[in-house]
Write a structure and sequence with these properties.
This protein is α+β, with helices and mostly antiparallel strands and about 290 residues long. It has two domains: about 160 residues, Ribosomal Protein S5, domain 2 (2-Layer Sandwich); about 120 residues, GHMP kinase, C-terminal domain (Alpha-Beta Plaits). Strands 1, 2, 3, 4, 5, 6 and 11 form a seven-stranded mixed sheet that branches. A hairpin with a 3-residue loop joins β1 and β2. α3 packs antiparallel against α4. The radius of gyration is 19 Å and the shape is globular.
Length: about 290
């Protein structure tokens, strides 16, 4: 049996801590034979545990403490600490593991609720569970969200080889914003969401690059953002914005220009992977 969970990007510029989009990179977990103790086979490195201290197993056992241990094989295309939802994917994989082995019969809504409780807000976890584009909020402990189809376009992920921890990236954000600036930031986000709902990526892209919530504070941690943005604009892209807390930059572009833009970004003097991706429409899936 196999569990597959997609990567996610959050924020899309002004949709800070609210907008999330599922991407065609995956964490895959194969459930093998029963064993005496849990073991997660993987070759990812980076200190990711092989035993039950692994986030996937911890999450599963929190939901279903009496699960029988199994040998698990994990493969993951989602690079950690790059703003592509690797921790959310692990949490969702743990929920799916508990749901499958423990026969919990959780609904998608319950999975989102559990994952958002663990992660703090639903922007990454909801699209990992549901697929596509999700706009959400956690208010007084309750999750509110809307899933919608994202406009057709190509996505290019410019993924530097250097990590940027979310805690470090959050540390540069201000505690407060002046009221007038917050109103303007909110109006930019509202126009972006309305444009996406109308399939107007040109207008949505313009709003993505006018974010006032977080990018200007994080830009000193992501010096390649203006370079990527400049090349993207020259090639006719809709927008380039930070993916989550960074350092990955996600470029939204018409499909006709995607391969040329991908090659142009590869020529930048930054040690990075440049991947051509799509919106992932299914969310977490189980394959028997």
């Amino acid at each position: 049996m196999r569990i597959r969970v997609p990567a996610t990007t959050a924020n899309l510029g002004p949709g800070f801590d609210s907008c999330g989009l599922a991407l065609t990179l995956y964490l895959t977990l194969d459930i093998g034979e029963r064993t005496e103790a849990w073991y997660v086979e993987h070759n990812i490195g980076g200190g990711i545990p092989h035993d039950e201290t692994n986030v996937i197993i911890e999450t599963a056992l929190n939901l279903a403490p009496n699960l029988t241990p199994h040998h698990l094989t994990m493969t993951c295309d989602i690079p950690p600490a790059r703003g592509l939802g690797s921790s959310s994917a692990a949490v969702v994989a743990g929920i799916e593991l508990a749901n499958t082995l423990g026969e919990l019969n959780l609904s998608k809504e319950e999975k989102v609720q559990i994952a958002a409780e663990i992660e703090g807000h639903p922007d990454n976890v909801a699209p990992a569970v549901l697929g596509n584009w999700v706009v959400g909020a956690k208010l007084d402990g309750e999750d509110f969200y809307v899933r919608h189809l994202f406009p057709d376009c190509a996505l290019i992920a410019f993924i530097p080889k250097t990590e940027l921890l979310t805690s470090e990236s959050r540390g540069v954000l201000p505690d407060t914003l002046p009221f007038k600036e917050a109103v303007q930031a909110s109006s930019i986000a509202n126009v972006m969401i309305a444009a996406i709902l109308r399939n107007d990526m040109k207008l949505a892209g313009e709003m993505m690059e006018r974010d006032l919530w977080h990018e200007k504070y994080r830009s000193k941690l992501v010096p390649h953002l203006p370079q990527v943005r400049e090349i993207a604009k020259k090639q006719g892209a809709y927008a380039a914005c930070l993916s989550g807390a960074g350092p990955t930059v996600l470029v939204f572009t018409p499909r006709a220009t995607a391969k040329g833009l991908q090659q142009a970004l590869r020529n930048l003097e930054v040690d990075a992977d440049v991947l051509l991706l799509d919106v992932e429409g299914s969310g977490a899936e189980i394959f028997h």
